[in-house]
Amino acid sequence: MRLSRRRLAAFLLLSAAGLGLAGWFLVPDTARVLRIVDGDTVEVLRRGRRTTVRLLGVDTPETVHPRIPDQFFGPEATAYTKRLLTGQTVRLTYPPRHERHDRYGRLLAFLERRSDHLDVNLEIVRQGYGRAYTKYPFRGLERFVAAQREAQAARRGLWAPGAVAPPETFAP
Length: 172
Fold this sequence. Notes:
CATH architecture: Beta Barrel
Number of helices: 4
Order of helices and strands: HEEEEHEEEHEH
Largest sheet: 5 strands, mixed, barrel
Number of strands: 8
């Protein structure tokens, strides 16, 4: 028996729902990165529209906040995110039972770089360009906390010996 693509997609979606996976991977969502706003915010072309995406699980120092001046290590965090994502295609995933948009209207997502499957959000924390954002718990939070501890122990990024301001000085 041959299934049409539409029927196969419906079958897979219902199967995922039965396994409790539908909230996490409802539909594979890919986008092309258009611009890096700052270390934890990017603009993408998704489903034919420009969309601002706030990376979940990571908080980097501010560089474009309307009420907060540039924070220590903010330009470095933004530059690192640019190195990771400029010209890249990414896969967006969303945690189950989590808000899809923040109060500023930004889409909240985890990004995976398609070229090598790099978990971008986690890598920013692992390399010390941001800290684990623990204010809103999500599945996998412990990996982000462990990555931050790893960066601190290795004295990378915000925790490097040349750092002149502690990471606590940037707003959560």
